[in-house]
Amino acid sequence: MRLRYLEENTVRLTLPAPDAVRATCEIEGETFERVQAVRCFPLTIPEEYVALLDEDGNEIGILRHPENLDEESRRALQALLERRYFTPQIERIDKLVQEASLWRWEVMTAHGRVGFYIRGIRDSIHEVAPGRWHIYSVDGQRFEIRDLDALDPRSRSLFEGLF
Predict the structure, then answer these.
(1) What are the start-end ranges of the E strands in the chain?
(2) For 19-32, what is each residue's pLDDT tens digit?
(3) Of 26, 94, 116, 147, which has the most beta carbons under 10 Å away?
């Protein structure tokens, strides 16, 4: 399979409904239904290099500079990416309790109070950059501590106590 870069001015993305998780994509007269968008480099350069995938997960092509899409396509792409990469930011850790083989977290996020479980520390918590952590719950949700040092002392102490 050959890498295919897409010229942004030839790509049109539309959402069939405002809350859709897949889009319709037209590229030079060819139409693809139920298209997904994934960031090629989600942590290092999230605003560039976005792959468009067909409904079977096969790569259609890569947008190098999605900001060059027309306005409607840019909005559709942004909506798809926001749904796929929704990651609440943890602002405070209120409680960490081990229950059998699981850890129960009670946290405050930018979207409100949330409770979730993780299985193992090594499998569920990853430092993705210095002081930046991703936490993966047992039900597949992602949470992020963007800057560990910015948390209050109690939250930092609870988090660091895991290790």
Answers:
(1) 5-6, 11-14, 23-27, 30-39, 50-53, 59-63, 90-99, 102-109, 112-118, 125-129, 132-136, 142-145
(2) 778 899 999 989 99
(3) 116
